From TrEMBL:
Enzyme class per UniProt: hydrolase
Domain annotation Isochorismatase-like: ranges: 4-199
Record-level Gene Ontology MF annotations: metal ion binding; nicotinamidase activity
Species of origin: Hymenobacter mucosus
Upper classification of the organism: Bacteria, Pseudomonadati, Bacteroidota, Cytophagia, Cytophagales
NCBIfam families to which the protein is assigned, alphabetical: PRK11609.1
Family membership: Belongs to the isochorismatase family.
Protein name (database record): Nicotinamidase
The organism's place on the tree of life at top rank: Bacteria
Entry-linked CDD domains: nicotinamidase
Keywords (A to Z) from UniProt: Hydrolase, Metal-binding, Pyridine nucleotide biosynthesis
InterPro entries: Isochorismatase-like_dom (IPR000868), Isochorismatase-like_sf (IPR036380), Isochorismatase_Nicotinamidase (IPR052347)
């Protein structure tokens, strides 16, 4: 049993959003087309309280994309994004949501960031996604969405650690940084993840 995991297809990660990923909008028609090929479609949603500590605005003297130490973890500082209840946190209205059976929110704890749909960045708290997927009989996780080098990558890594077979749908993602994505891609392959394009979907 396989699932399509749609990561963070939210306005703030799309052109015009506060943390826009170049070409992010281009994945939407593709994932809409892919959804009927999966028995189960699940989504993640970045869902930060206002004033989240991953926001550069909470660290005077720092700027967006600076690296800091946050309670012992390396943290990239981001522009304010995906604040609960704002339009930027909503899924794009172009995304077909009718087949999404469950939505897992992340990044809700103010003091810790959460890239993966499975765990926060300190691996302290699970979202319940792994147990949900196992409960549905899923063994294979196909990933798409934004951003390839952050939330899609960290979700894929955790899915591998959780013993799922992982398929990274490369043409259905876009990255924040091209170099960061090349590293992420190599790392996933070294961990046994498969990187493929949607045309190779059987
Ligand atoms: C993401 C940075 C901060 C993502 C979320 O969805 O890739 N990136 N929050
Ligand atoms: Zn975030």
């Amino acid at each position: 049993m396989r699932t399509l995991l749609l990561v963070d297809i939210q306005y703030d990660f799309l052109p015009g959003g506060s943390l826009a990923v170049a070409g992010g909008n281009e994945v939407i028609p593709l994932v809409n087309h892919l959804q009927p090929q999966f028995e189960l479609v699940v989504a993640t949603q970045d869902w930060h309280p206002a004033g989240h500590k991953s926001f550069a605005s909470q660290h005077p003297g720092h700027h967006a994309f600076d690296q800091i130490d946050l309670h012992g973890l390396p943290q990239t500082l981001w522009p304010d994004h995906c604040v609960q209840g704002t339009r930027g946190a909503e899924f794009s209205s172009d995304l077909d949501q009718n087949r999404i059976e469950a939505i897992f929110r992340k990044g809700t704890t103010p003091e810790i960031d959460s890239y993966s749909g499975f765990f926060d960045n300190g691996h302290r708290k699970a979202t319940g996604l792994a147990d949900y997927l196992r409960g549905r009989g899923v063994t294979q996780v196909y990933l798409a969405g934004l951003a390839a080098d952050f939330c899609v990558y960290f979700s894929a890594k955790d899915a591998l650690e959780q013993q799922f077979e992982v398929f990274f749908l490369e043409d259905a993602t876009r990255a924040i940084s091209a170099e960061g994505y090349q590293q992420a891609r190599a790392d996933l392959r070294s961990r046994g993840g498969k990187v493929l394009t949607s045309t190779e979907l059987g």
